[in-house]
């Protein structure tokens, strides 16, 4: 059944590959083989992903809102993004960047609280430098392309080159379609670190689409490293970094990523809103790697090298991207509403020192490593309301990496894995922990989950104490020895290895 599902995914991928081939006529390829993503010697990769939509057809019949000034070239656009207080309507069409804005030195606007580091000056290299503030850019029907041939002319120094730097404040981008074009064969190109880096407060993206491609290597997750000490050349390419900037908003946006790098990653940030968005990453079955005739896996004898050297496992499904939404240092007050993330490594990894992490009406599908890892500790609160996920290839919860959640609220509906799904070694509901937390699990499945994956581990690496679990699914709860003084109501069976827990067994069909 898994084989059938992957073949369907490959056929779907063919549509995306064909579209990319039209963008890069200098790269001839076999059907379904994208020479921007793989070596010519290898068969087409089996990729599980959602192809991006084609841009809207270009038409001369388009709206110019009152007060907006029409422009029709990237040269005019480059001038506009360096001014303040403008309302710009760009003429619909496809615009490919062929030159770059000059490098800059940009002084950060917020101190890093955890390190005590003051404001610092960062070197920037970029294709587009948005230095103006308080602007509105109406880009409906506009496609802006950043080819890797141009990205590769920028600095190769770490944390310097991004395709776009948003250095101005309070800018709004409406309706743009931003895409990478791989116009050089893999792995000869060099991509920027991020497509967008947000460096100032109050910037918004509304109803924009982002097609992110270009990284080396591609196709192996982090088997050959993800930072210093990588085994072979490493060139990540992420969607967006928010760096020392507050109150960024992504509303109604769609991200389609086929590159090893994060979706949205946050550094020294207070306030992010993601609403009505869709993030699509990419998966690959490890069995497909063994079909390769050349490349990184062949060079290392089909062994993974990162962390420890060992054979690449068979029958796994691995993420070809990094995390969907990821918090690093000094991040607080992140809100995600009415949003779906699929097929990223950790779909949500938000480990914050303080402030609130709020997820409402959020769905995760086919996580590449885990669906949710959310914690704040006792200086804020985690609230998950009406969220959902499936336990297809990896666990739903992995609450083991950050501070112990305190008075957090997690409400989750368990969904069906995809049709044709075959359980993987790590498929499960995952691991939860916390202090005085509330967990509510609901059953959104339409067919029974395999018994071996229908399991939730409570406690273990970290304790679960003085908390409440309401389990309205058939999942088995395993209460490890450090689960204490908890109140459990469960339809599924409960194995209690802890102490002083009060367990109420519910009948099938019971609800609150």
How would you sum up this structure, described in words?
With 512 residues, the chain is mainly beta. The protein has two domains: 1-286 and 318-350, no CATH class; 359-512, no CATH class. Helices cover 8% and strands 38% of the residues. It has a 21-stranded parallel beta sheet that branches. The protein has a nine-stranded mixed beta sheet with strand order 5-6-9-12-15-18-25-27-29, with no helix packed on it. Strand 22 (303-304) and strand 23 form a beta hairpin. The longest helix has 22 residues, at 2-23.
Question: Characteristics of this structure?
Answer:
9-stranded mixed β-sheet; disordered N terminus; single chain; 43 strands; 21-stranded parallel β-sheet
Summarize the structure.
This protein has 512 residues and is mainly β. The chain is built from five helices and 43 strands.
- Indicate the mean pLDDT: 92
Please bin the fraction of helical residues. under 10%
Instruction: Give the overall form.
Output: globular
How much of the sequence is in beta strands?
Answer: 35-45%
Which structural class do the helices and strands define?
mainly beta
Number of strands: 43
Number of continuous helical runs = 5
Unreliable runs, pLDDT <50, ≥5 residues? 1-29
Largest sheet: 21 strands, parallel
Number of domains: 2
The separation of the N and C termini measures 36 Å
């Amino acid at each position: 059944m898994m084989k059938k599902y992957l073949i369907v995914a490959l056929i779907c991928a063919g549509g995306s590959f064909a579209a990319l081939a039209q963008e890069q006529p200098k790269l001839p390829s076999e059907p379904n083989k994208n020479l921007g993503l793989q070596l010519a010697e290898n068969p087409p990769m089996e990729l599980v992903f959602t192809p991006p939509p084609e841009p809207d057809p270009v038409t001369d019949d388009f709206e110019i809102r009152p007060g907006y000034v029409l422009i029709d070239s990237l040269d005019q656009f480059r001038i506009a993004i360096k001014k303040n207080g403008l309302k710009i309507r760009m003429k619909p069409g496809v615009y490919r960047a062929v030159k770059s804005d000059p490098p800059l030195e940009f002084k950060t606007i917020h101190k890093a609280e955890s390190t005590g580091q003051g404001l610092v000056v960062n070197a920037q290299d970029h294709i587009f430098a948005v230095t103006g503030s308080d602007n509105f850019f109406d880009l409906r029907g506009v496609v802006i392309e950043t080819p890797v041939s141009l990205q590769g002319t920028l600095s190769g120094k770490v944390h310097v080159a991004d395709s776009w730097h948003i250095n101005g404040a309070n800018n709004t981008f409406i309706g743009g379609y931003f895409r990478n074009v791989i116009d050089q064969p893999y792995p000869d190109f060099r991509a920027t670190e991020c497509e967008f880096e947000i460096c100032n407060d109050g910037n918004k993206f509304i109803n924009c689409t982002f097609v992110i491609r270009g990284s080396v290597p591609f196709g192996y997750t982090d088997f050959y490293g993800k930072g210093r000490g990588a085994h072979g050349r490493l060139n990540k390419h992420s969607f967006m970094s928010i760096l020392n900037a507050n109150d960024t908003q992504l509303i109604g946006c769609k991200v389609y990523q086929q590159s090893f790098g994060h979706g949205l990653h946050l550094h020294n940030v207070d306030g992010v809103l993601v609403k009505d968005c869709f993030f699509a990453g990419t998966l690959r079955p490890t069995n497909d790697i063994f079909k390769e005739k050349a490349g990184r896996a062949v060079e290392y004898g089909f062994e993974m090298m990162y962390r420890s050297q060992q054979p690449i496992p068979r029958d796994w499904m691995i993420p070809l991207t990094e995390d969907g939404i990821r918090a690093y240092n000094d991040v607080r007050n992140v809100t995600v509403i009415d949003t779906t993330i699929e097929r990223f490594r950790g779909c949500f990894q938000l480990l914050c020192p303080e402030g609130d992490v709020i997820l409402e009406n959020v769905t995760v599908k086919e996580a590449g490593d885990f669906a949710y890892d959310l914690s704040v500790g006792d200086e804020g609160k985690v609230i998950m309301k009406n969220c959902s996920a499936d336990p297809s290839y990896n666990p739903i919860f992995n609450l083991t990496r950050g501070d112990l959640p305190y008075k957090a609220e997690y409400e989750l509906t368990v969904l069906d894995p995809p049709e044709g799904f075959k359980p993987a070694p790590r498929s499960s509901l995952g691991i939860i922990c916390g202090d005085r937390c509330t967990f509510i699990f609901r059953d959104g499945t339409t067919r029974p989950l395999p018994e071996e994956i229908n399991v939730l581990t409570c406690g273990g690496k970290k304790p679960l104490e003085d908390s409440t679990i309401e389990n309205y699914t058939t999942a088995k709860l395993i209460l490890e020895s450090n689960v204490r003084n908890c109140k459990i109501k469960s339809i599924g069976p409960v194995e209690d290895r802890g102490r002083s827990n009060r367990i109420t067994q519910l009948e099938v069909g019971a609800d609150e």
